[in-house]
Fold these 4 entries.
Entry 1:
Amino acid sequence: MATQEIVKLVTDTVTKEAFGIWFLIGAALVFLMQAGFAMVETGFTRAKNAGNIIMKNLMDFCIGTVVFILLGFSLMMAEDYAFGVIGIPNLKILTDFGGFLKDGGAPSFVFNLVFCATAATIVSGAMAERTRFLSYCLYSGVISLIVYPIEAGWVWNPQGWLVNLGFHDFAGSAAIHAVGGITALIGAIMVGPRLGKYNKDKSGKVTRVNAIPGHAVTLGALGCFILWFGWYGFNGAAAWDGESLASIFVTTTVAPAVATCTTMIFTWVKSGKPDVSMCLNASLAGLVGITAGCDALNAVGAAIVGVVSGILVVVVVELLDLKLHIDDPVGAVGVHFANGVWGTIAVGLLADPAAPAGLKGALYTGDFRLFGVQALGISCILAWTAVTMSLTFLIIKKTAGLRVTTEEEIRGLDATEHGLPGAYADFAPAVDGSCYGYDDAVVVSGDVPSAEAVPVRTVSLPDPGGVKFTKIEIVCRESRFEALKSAMMDIGITGMTVSHVLGCGAQKGKPEYYRGVQIEATLLPKIQVDIVVSKVPVRAVIETAKKVLYTGHIGDGKIFVYDVENVVKVRTGEEGYDALQDVE
């Protein structure tokens, strides 16, 4: 053998082994995405259900592993296929595990398993906060056992009928995300909206859509970054050489970045401010959109995918919520279903013949054959999933029950489904009876020695004689207190009482929006400032407070004015006008 041939053989062997290792590393990155999904869903929902969501994401993978090893993997990657549609199960993975490992089946099993778990976990967020845990476990088992393996076999098994037609879904826009997305849509419809999400009149017509913000945008952002990081393994693990891997990394970066910028601008123009949660959704939407064609599109094509994904996710999320009144707390349908379909179709339009995959997109060649195949493939995958998952949810709803009771939903699923008092261990400080520095305070009762109290002058209750006392009660943001206090001092107010309160109320100021829905007033921490005046004009206090507190946004506060009969200064016993004057 010539030296050049030996060098080539060694190089090819090393390269093959290196990409085999990268294949398994990619599987590990995809597994890490389970944590990303858990964080996104937890952050976008309320704290009382955080433990339940973590549990569902954990069990998606664990239940999926059990059923996938029992039957799912054999259905998906069977060597024998009936009409290219249904794999004939081969249980070698159970009966001869050692031989299965030697045959090189283990890497394929692990890789396809983590993809299967991804399809299952997409549904968790759309059905969050009101779904029975048992019912969710049953659904998760069904999708990993039958639904995903069969349609994924069409796409990735060499004998699958879509593969033989030329259907291209490199990493799963259709086989994973569209499947999880349409299942999320069906599940959200069947389980119904969360309590308080939609106000209805007596006829059942929705009269108002209420925003229910998530409890921790920071958790959602962390999950988004974890998912983006894991997506390099999701899209890149199956790369066959260094050139294709580099190209995949480029498109996997460009599409979500452009999608996020697009959504930021779109929501900024539409609502007056860039929407944080929508931008997080947009990053994921761009990743979903590029997943099918990450090896077939160039950077320009990835950017086009990103622009469409960035607009599409906002339109679909708001369409479902504001028009169709389908409650999807995390935007799973807009991210995965809509962009899974778009990403699959985009391959038929934008595939660059010069890209590593070498496919012929219609906009480059004028040939619409690939576009037709992509449209047929995604339609059949969606039809299969819609039928099987509708039957699954219907059976679960009629037997085990799909939704928790009203009382359980109000209390939160952490407590009712898992016996968990709170996923955050209720970090509110407890009352422990500590003195906090007041150990030496004088307790006054009965006769008090003159050394412990100032002399008290006893006076008779004076006739107001035309002197009017007015109490002004101001409820406002705590952040504005220092400015309010300074302004009050400037107009002659020398005393005030401040209390921490919870406040809410309908406002006519500038509205705020969460995911396109106007945020209604809710109980929020406030401060209450009480001032009693006689000398300082009431109108001066009111106008000064309005000037200091006004921003035009919900929560600026309210001012209440009351008549006061009398004022008594406890220390001196003075009453009436003199009691309000800080002079000896």
Note: The CA atoms of residues 51 and 423 lie 5 Å apart.
Entry 2:
Amino acid sequence: MTLFHPLRAERMTLLLSLALIVFYNVPFWHEMGRITAGLGGHGPLLLAEAFVLLLAFFNLVLALLAWPYVFKPVMTALLLITALVSYFMNQYGIMIDMPMVQNVLQTDPAETRDLLTIKMGLFALGLGVLPALWLWKTPIAYRPPLRELGVRLVSLLVTLAVLLGVVFFAYQDFASLFRNNRQLRFIVTPSNYIQATNSYLHHVSGTGPVVVMPLGSDAKKAPSWTVHRRKTVLVVVVGETARADHFALNGYRRDTNPLLAKQAGLLNFSNVHSCGTETAVSVPCMFSGIGRDNYSGDAAAKRENLLDVLKHAGFDVLWRDNNSGCKGVCNRVAYEDLANLKAPGLCGDGECYDDVLLDGLAQRLQHLPRDSVIVLHQKGSHGPAYYKRYPKDFERFTPVCRTSELSQCSQQDIVNGFDNTLRYTDHMLSGLIDLLRANGEVNSGLIYLSDHGESLGENNVYLHGMPYLFAPEAQKHIPAVMWFSDGFRQETGLDTRCLAAKKDLPWSQDNLFHSVLGVLGVETRVYDGRLDLFQGCKAASKGLV
């Protein structure tokens, strides 16, 4: 038999089903091995049952597609995409759900370039291009139409009988397996990304143009604002991929916050958690006011958010971005894309260091037309190319992993690069505080919190974006700090000693919406004092909401 010997359709689908199970689902079998390791003699039986179940299921689906002019084009696309998905799952330990698909589709060109590696190309060649070429070179020996239909029906019935038989005889095993290990459905490929992509397309298609409902249109400044002598600016810094347990301010053994630790009046909050594990979820969620338990991207897109409420209250609102956009949050306020500037020393190779967010900010504060809220969206610690996120002068921890193929580096080298990004964030935030403090003519405040955390190889999991239910603490526990000028504290009646007493209490991104309204003294029906971190720490005489 030659390599390209003609095959009957049913044999071709069986071979491809076997290939999908064995070569493209290594993460699934690793997880199954972990789950069954403590089951004794029952473990191998459960693995065998899962193998037959997947083989019958895949073969049934492929047999339905195995018709002339349809099968080969569809299978080519399936092999190429599945090869890439399998690579990223093997390389970074990720799972595929709808938010992950959304995250991929919203990734900017610079982030995409970081992911393009020689290993990925070889993986795509070996599991994508070469099998697709073999498929096109191998003739499928179809029978005369009526006979082919008859044989196909028999084949389908036999496959369905095997599938139902395995489910029937192993129902208790599978019911327990998938009830206690719901993460499995996110790592069986190609069904995981097909289902996730279908959900995403259904989500974005909708039924027509998105109608954005007003939110907080009654918002206004509290009466105490009439006696303010200076203009006020609150800067909200949305970090990227920083994790709380690597902040020295939270007790990390390395000095990742040498400058912030010296900033007088800095407030560090050690117990803050994110709304999601990827930017596409966390950023719109934290500004939505919906809360993580009730959040959906569709609901957030159909109503205004915190920035709109502040605009209704009379604040100038500006979003300055050094990342991949604001994920719809800033659609109705002023926006500046700084990620593609040509600023010498700050930008190069299609991306910029986060100091670009401070470029021109001092002049803007000197000529502030009205009370303002400015959001700075960092590139932060976005991986896998951590070494690209900071200038060479900030490389304190060495050696550093200098490839996006994290599996080629030791975990310590990966951590070194990541920790260097946090030292650079420390520099940027401290510089921002110095800039605000130097402008004494403006009352200023700073709130910083990361969008989500990051896995650095613990349990062979890298990056972020795992489904929240299964995500490790490293992807959800985020750093958060605040700072307020003397003038801000005096004119708003903010008691920072009261606030400091709350620094170790459990907070989350759900608190951002109401806390910003609270600290700025914005009166509106959508404000909920129970979620205001500043509640009880502002003098009533200063117009607490």
Note: The longest strand covers residues 231-239.
Entry 3:
Amino acid sequence: MTETTTPPENNPPEKKPSKPGLFMSRHLKAKPPAPAGQPPPPVKNAAPGQPAKPGMPDDKRWLSSDAPLPDSAVSEAELEEELHTIYDGPEATDMTRLTRVRSSLARKTLIGLAVFFGFLAAVSWAGFLFFNPTDRKFSGEGVELVIEGPHEIKSGEPITYVVSYRNGERVPLGTASLEMRLPKEFVVTETNPKPGDDGLWRVGSLAPGKDDQIEIKGVVQAPLGQPLDLQAILTYRPADFNSEFQKVATLSAPVADSVFALSATGPAKIMPGDKVTIDIGYVNQSETEFKKMRVVADFPPSFIPESVEPTATDDAKNTWNLDSIAPNTEGHIKISGTFASDAKGLNEIKARLGYLDANEEFKIQKEASYSADVVEGQLALALILNGKSGDQPVAFGDTLHYAVTWRNTGEVSLDDVEISILLDAQPDQNRVLLWNQMKDKEQGVRDGNRVTWTKRQVRALGRIGPSDEGTIDFDVPLLAAPLDDAKSGDYRVTSSLEAKIGLIDHEPADRVIQAPPFAAIVSSDARLEAATRYFNEDGIPIGSGPLPPRVDEATTYRVTWTLTNSLHDLADLKLSARLPDNVVWTGKSSVDAGDLKFDAAVGKIVWNLNWLPITVSKMTVSFDVAITPTADQRGKVPTLVDAVIFEARDKVNGNAIILSTPPTTTSPEADDLAASKGRVQ
């Protein structure tokens, strides 16, 4: 059964759309509503027996019907008829022209604004890319700073450094300033342009591509081999930044030479004992005056200088301080002396020229050397003190044991030989050595501080044949303590030995042979005492336990080490002693200064102090130890503390000081009340 529905009469007819394409589909072609009383045409996209899909738009309601569509399919003839009705009917759409549909004002306004702002954004980006391209952004890599100068420096010669800077960026630099960090050895003589009062060069603004430079002139006075480092720092702020940037450049060059010339000359061949004169010459080859200069000569141990001109600054006759050396001037130093009897072969003498810096340190500018070929002589002469030669430390109260030895190393005889020794004592020639206690079995002749032996005292000196040798021994004691009225605390005895040869192979000769001099340097007057007590000086017990000590019972004693010193400051002080197996450290101690410890692992007491000035003339270390005598010590006086060893260094002359004391026992000599009560019961 087919159901039909007739549209209401008051329903106005639907207006046809202007675009024909909206009324067509691949499977369904729309046509006007069927006349009243006729069923509407079937819908092709509906399945047989199913209603059409709901939800169609309101403006297309005329395509639908209130009644369900028939199940039959639309024939081709019907489709053709519908198409003719749409396109050929009286209300057919004119497809030959397009009709513009007017839209609302709000929509037009929104579209216009969108277009306007899009155009504005496009113009803005185009302007940014045109006026600020990416290659104009500041990176800092285009800022250049370079120092130009010599790659090797000649001390004393004028030097020019050029510092160049350039802005290779496309952004201008503002508030730029340049700082130069120069070594202290470089003395500035001229700058172009000049820096400000704060030492900075105010560059100011630096436009893109702009460059400039500063010039610094000066003179370097530096030791040979020292590298000289310069540093330039450019501080700037780009025009479009609020932060400061820096560019740093450095230049390093070694001091390879100086403007000075130095030479050392002398005879090519020499025999021991022959007088030789060595000339040290120096020249300032620059236009600059140099002040606080110094010349130093380094002699081999076998060379003995006797006289120098001009006068040397020191007693060793090898140092000369020169107030100044004028431009383009030269000077000479003459050194006269001899080579010792044991000298042979090449012996080098070095000369050094330099200046004294602000700390009075010697900085070398030039070096030279001279080598003398010393032919082995006929007489070898040597001086031995306390079993060895050369400088050595001695103490107040020591006895100086001298041995003078000689040997004929030639092939001819030496006749009428005279040997003498000069003992130069300081600070007082007559009181440092106790000449009245001198012991000399050869009975040499003393004249002041010189002792001489000839063939009258030693027969062997009348004729010394080839390979003959001999020895003279003598002793001279030192004073026991420093002099109260001495102005100097430098106590020493310098020994000089020489031999005069009257005849060589029966021919007259005037040859003097010398041995290298050396000094016995007196160390400070440090003294050490070790004492044990049971009672103090007032008779009050400071020890405990049985007295005399008894087997298997502990008795405590107080041990005191007393150090005195008044001549020189001491450094690196150390006192140490071991305890016997049956003696224990109680832990009770007292020290004036320093650090006192007991090393239980080795059973050793150690006291250390870094420095002891002469203003502290006395230092005391005390501690308690307890002894428990064993059965085998019954009837004996046992040891409380082994020998004390004292070590220190004399800060004036560098001598090592070593002192010792004998072991302390249970019979303390300083304690009258306990001295006789030390034997174990």
Note: The first helix runs from residue 76 to 88.
Entry 4:
Amino acid sequence: MDIQYEDMRTEDVLAATAVGVWEWDDVRGVATTDAVSAELLGLPPTRATFPEATLRARFHVEDWTAAQRAIGLARTEGRVGEAELRVVDREGAVLRTVRLRFRTPRGEPAPDPSPPGDLLGTISEVSPALPPPPESDWDERRAREAFVLDTGRALSEVATVEEAVRVLGGLAMPGFAPDAVVLVGRGGGWLVYPTGAAGAGGRGGAGGAGGPRFLVPLDARHPAAEALRAGRAVYLPSPGEYRRRYPDVWAAPHGTRRRAWAYLPLVVAGRTIGVWLAAFGHEVPFTIVERSTLSTIARMLAQALARISLADTERELTADLQHTMRPPPTPSVPGMWVAARYVPTGGGLQVGGDWYDVIPLPTGRVALVIGDVQGHDVRAAAVMAQLRIALRAYASEGHHPDAVLSRASRFLAALTAGTAGDPDAPDDDARFATCLYVEVDPPSGTLVVARAGHLDPAMVLQDGTVVTRPTVGGLPLGLLPQSDYPTTRLVLQPGETLLMCTDGLLEAGGRDVDAGWGRLRKAVAGLSDLRLDDLADTLVETVYVPPPRRTTPPLADVNRDDIALLLLRRPPADRTRPAGDAPVRRGVLTIAQSEPARVSDARRQLGALLHDWTDPERVHGAMLMLSEAVTNVLTHTDGDALLVAEISGRRGERLLRVEVSDPSDELPHPREPGELASSGRGLLLMRSLADAWGWSPRGVGKTTWFELGEEPPDSGG
């Protein structure tokens, strides 16, 4: 009989001996079998591709779980794996027992993630059928699975290499436990031995993270170097095996009184970053179950170390960016006190578009700047850095606040528009920024405010009352290159504190801006004479929730945005105020003829000053009289209204005095309006609601005023 060997295929030879061939596509979750394999599995005897669910239904559930461990181990170590499984019919009756043998196509450890078709194998029938495992095996399997889950949970929470070493040192594996663990790192062409070490129960060992280290060449005949080069585990179950395979380096481990060693490569995304050594005080056979357990822990350890390395890199980059982009840590304004805070509360690199700055001006004044570039990413941080430099340059040239913001808006529009024609630039690369720019004259306390879509500034009065100061403003920087930014003039009274912040301080926890201001008012209410740094800390601590070490999705958005805060305090004029004497609250606001809508701002400011007044009815009456006085100025004169509200005295005995001044010399004329009259009742309201009221001429124009006394809570008033 003349046999033509060149015409014979491997599949034909295997089929003649009742051995089938199969291929597993792990990505698609399907297996391709030849006719022999399909028949052994109780399927139609033809070459076909089956989904994972079909194959799983053909195997006993206990054997399928064991086979999955064997497959994972074979893929990790790049060697031939083997498993025996019972094939069952639709009713669960055992048809036969088959043996699977498998390996990766190239005989190498499969990268992570594995490519399609990452396993090839054979299948053949064996007999007799496997007996069911005893109950003790089930208990051991459950204990092993619980151990792996607990170890994975512990490794997922470590934040440093030292913590990972402590977790490894405390391992108590079912049936066997390492007597010592060592991490071996990779540095250039060398192994750094060790980068971390611990004994059983977490005891630090010699040569640990703080002890002596040794360098081992990557091409050395050493078990750690071999595990790193080949990307597969090296198991040495006894001292004799160690001496036989590595005679040159045998002396060192022999002196440690260890009896078995497992060197497992730490692989992440196909790259070996180090080696984990688990040493045992007794000989270990390293069965397939033990190897599978060690390989699983090695994979989890590699992921944890990669995450720690990435976090360390991000923290270092964050620190460098923040150091580069922030102003000096102790900015100063002559004759005033300054405090600033920046709290990165988002994820990622923890660097966003928020910034603040304190800029000396050539006129002797000082500019305070706070702003927020759209976005919370590296691009936002880069744009912020460039915009901050541009603002500092324009301010240092001596431009007026409105001109500084106009130039900055044109700069930002040109900067982000430069990427519009770049096909590689993201669609959202165009950025805008909000900004609050305040020019301060320290001797007089005068503030010239220019605002570009940012939050209004606020004043913290001497007794802790927070009052927002409405200002005119323009669009955010970068939206329209030719935007105008009108200015508002305010006065910082002695003892008062200017508060400038980004929206992260107010909107933390999902609150809106009004609710955020309310929370800050409540936090500092009544805190008189609080040091400026203590006030800054109190404001931040009121809203900031430190994220947990491992942020979960429900907590990932607690703070939502970075927090930037800038405080400026004018020293009190009278630093010898008697103990128990309450500080004076004062609010000043100018309402132009062209801004009648700002009457509501005046009412809000007065309401903020009276936030703790004992009688709500009198508060309502005060705001009503204020509206009438300001409206009379805007209606019957051609000038602007200047509002000054002042509260003095102790709680329960305080006096409110409100003055509304205008440039007209015409004095008010009380009238007796008829029932159908639409005006003329303002002075009648003051007469009926105020404790005292009147008007008086001044240098140019006149001042209309009224006073209200606070009634004690138990007066019945």
Note: The mean pLDDT is 79.
